[in-house]
Amino acid sequence: MASSTIVSAALTLVLAFTSGLVLISAPAPMAQAQPSPDHLRRADSLFAEFTGRDSPGLAVAVVRDGKVVFTKGYGLANLEHQIPITPATVFDVASLSKQFTGLGVAMLVQQGKVALSDDIRKYIPELQLMPQPITVDHLVHHTSGMRDWPGTLTLAGWRYDDVISFDQILTMAYQQKTLNFPPGSEYTYSNTGYNLLAEMVKRVTGTSFRTWTDDHIFRPLGMTHSVFRDDHQLIVPQRALGYSRVGANGPWRGVTNNLTALGSSSLMSSADDMARWLINFDDARVGGSGPKALMRTRGVLTNGSEIPYAFGISHGTYRSAPTLSHSGSWAAFASFLVQFPQQRAGVVVLANTPSVNASRAAFALADIFLGDALGVAPVALPTTSSPPPLLERAATPPVALAEFAGTYESDELGIAYPVEVRGTQLIVRSRRHGDIPLQHRGRDDFSGALGGLRSVQFQRDGSGRVVGFAVTIDERSRDIRFVKHQ
């Protein structure tokens, strides 16, 4: 072996051990295709606003026929140290993580270690409070009825800048006593379902989810800058920080990211690595043809209707061309991946600011680099709309509010909220979120602003006495029961 090769290999191993990432050797180079000057100019013009020295930005990659046809970074990965974004910059790709969990489940099904019809309690018996069986198939297709943890943890007093660990998310899931809907009866997106799938992979394989994905997906694909962050303090080389701003022209502010939501989120990856993943959509070098086909299998509801969602990907169309896509967002990061199976092409956009519309950017790049290979571009028609009329709500007399006052507790979430009357307003007191005014919508129906709170429906016993309330945060987290202390 030449001395330069020995030095290079040794340096790779040193970096691997010191960074906490498992990098055995440099990945094989990806085949490259040279884009035309016109394509480059048009791509750069899309992201001109992110090319300054004071802005976060994005990294992009376009692949076609097994080759990378374009990859580039715009803006800064770190504003304090003025570090530019490159195709090797590592982003939190948020819900794009679900595709890798989906492939993991599909591989275990192909190996006969898991069946889609299995009750998840076969692998995770801690879910003993579940009122009905939930299958692996329900979880991968978001038809389980499991509540989504971002809403329920907020209601339980957590803030998004807290340390939110995988164990905390699982504990919340284990305490869930009711479901949003009977399993299989409807499609409603739930991050919690994919967290349970990651835990299932761990228990079936006998190794951590991070290690299993390293060994069976990332390392075989040469995705050496990709890792599921299972420790919020893990050092991830070349990682971008997330930034948001107040108002259109306000100062940039760093956004804390202490999440370890394995399976649903928390994958750290780069545009270069995601290009390798896009190519694998076609050649299935990792996973094989069986799991590839299974990953694209749409869910079917109990009424026989088919949904667009499969194993971490959603079927759709763009300019008459079939697509497989998914988006992601968390802690100011925004991501979007779209694959065009018929054109053997794909685009990924990874951003460290929500100022980037990742899906719009991805389709704009597809217009540039795929061009006539897609169908006729749609003609945008002007639209006009007027805001809906405001609904007048009758004021509730102060005396009517007194019966709602008291302390309400949820065993499922492990939290109690005092509710009190102040003047003509009903107030929910929260140590973490401050006082939350409730707006009256009907006799026993109120709404508030906590975590997108949509409905607080007070409940009565047979004598008409208020005994509790049920909270619906949004369609992903419904009917969370609180009991009034008597």
Write up this protein.
The protein has 12 helices and 21 strands. It is of the alpha+beta class and 486 residues long. Among the domains are: 250 residues, Beta-lactamase, CATH 3.40.710.10; 87 residues, Lipocalin (Beta Barrel). The strands form 5 sheets. The protein has an 8-stranded antiparallel beta barrel. Strand 11 and strand 12 form a beta hairpin. Helix 3 packs across helix 7.
Strand count, sense and closure of the main sheet? 8 strands, antiparallel, barrel
Shape: globular
Quickly count the helices: 12
- So what's the CATH class of the domain at 90-145 and 180-373? Alpha Beta
> Radius of gyration, rounded?
24 Å
Helix and strand content put the structural class at alpha+beta
User: How much is the average pLDDT?
Assistant: 89
Parts with pLDDT < 50 across at least 5 consecutive residues? 1-25, 381-399
The CATH superfamily name of the domain at 90-145 and 180-373 is DD-peptidase/beta-lactamase superfamily
Estimate percent helicity: 25-40%
CATH architecture level-2 label of the domain at 90-145 and 180-373: 3-Layer(aba) Sandwich
Strand order across the largest sheet: 14-15-16-17-18-19-20-21
Work out the strand percent.
15-25%
Number of strands: 21
CATH topology of the domain at 90-145 and 180-373: Beta-lactamase
- How far apart the termini lie comes to 79 Å
